[in-house]
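Fig. S4 source data, part A: sequence.
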Amino acid sequence: MTKSRTILSVLLAGLSFAGSSAQAAQPDPPSRFECGGELESAVWRRWDSDGKRLLESLVSDRLVKQGDTYALYDFEIYFHNLLSMAQRCRRIDRQTEFASWISKTYAQLSATRGRDSSLEWVCRGGSVCNDRNRLVNKEVMLTSVQFLALAMSAANGLDRSSAAAEHKAFIAETSRIAIHHLQRWNDSNARRSLQRRVAAKASDVKDGSSALFLSDKDIWQLVIYAELAGVLAQHPEFEKELRADSSDFAPMREHVKLLLELFKARTSLMTVKDPAGRSTATVADLDRGFWRLYVDNRYAAYNDKKPPLRCTSNVSESGRQKMQVLVEAQSLQPAETVGWDISHARRLVHFFDAIERNRQPMQALYGAGQDILPDGKVVASFARQLRTTVWNQDTKHPLFTNYYSGANGWYRVAYDNGANRCTEGTPPFGLSGAFPTGGYATWERWDEMLGTLGRQLYELTRSTSETDIQFIKASYPQFSGLASGDVRARSELMFWPTLVK
């Protein structure tokens, strides 16, 4: 019997029915933004009318028919906030639906060359994977790791519910797949890279290379490790089986600790004045200064509303629109403190949530001490940075800077992901939509204003005031009449669940 089948059989045997507990009846009906309230009902209506159809397109059309593994990336982006709401509100039937869709992707796993019983999602088509960017017929680690974070969250959530026994096969299979991927990604080269990055300083970055960055792939691996620890805590017999093979388990423990050390090393804690000027506050930024020379951020210090580049109607020999450069990047000084943009930083929402829910299992399984596990004070510091520095301080018409450092220049000018498209870039405040769709409103427990801003944006998207309508069109177009029905539906399915508590 192979090791993978042994682990699967051990977990299946050890899963037992978790006793259900009836929720105490509430004396008053839930409020609009509470579980069971008006907004949650609207979310599930939107899911039933549009969400399932959108997910069908992602899985059946893009992943299965086209072999486009970027469908896995979009699966997480579009629906992770919805899964989190289903878990908060204890909607087991909805969590079950997610588990069913996630399971369908497992049939698309292919055997890894030269490795027994190890599988991977191979990108064979779609708009991004091609010979030019050398992604076709390969695993794109980013899409796999991001999706597995969602899958393990779904498995861990069901494992802690009253329906654990009904979903034992899904929990076991997801855990097995996650372990195989983590072990494959955690080779000696990966650990050496982590050691170099832990020791690095922003001044060590001399060019546009991303080699020293803390990446979203690092964040997502930690999410997978955290959710896996939660499952193993429920099943000591499975944990014992994993520990028995020290040749695999010891590197996993080292990997987790190195990833946590890197996150700690790249968290910059600073003291700033509250915008009102009456007090000071501790705030946090991520990878501060490391991204200043990166190609996506060449125009991070360019704050003009006029684009520094225009895509013309002429087409080059390669079939791409020609670019007219209006402002040379070399003429600009780098934004010295720039790190992550606020759209990518949305990973922090699910990262901190996974750490908080699985803190004790991570300590027990991986030996991760409180010195490297981020605590509530760290989360609160990131939330304060969002309120004090990223937000424009306008409660009526809130906007958010493009970068978590507070820099607000252009983002991804002339961005080229290999899809052969001309891209003018994102202007100042152009990433504001990442606040509602990224889940930042759930940080209300750490900073009350963030929940207030989320609810204000919700009201603005429903307002009949011409001023508000024009504001949404200009700054949050995915929620406006300018958006297609599918774009608006998936945007609302990303946003609305973050307001339900």
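Fig. S4 source data, part B ends here. The mean pLDDT is 91.
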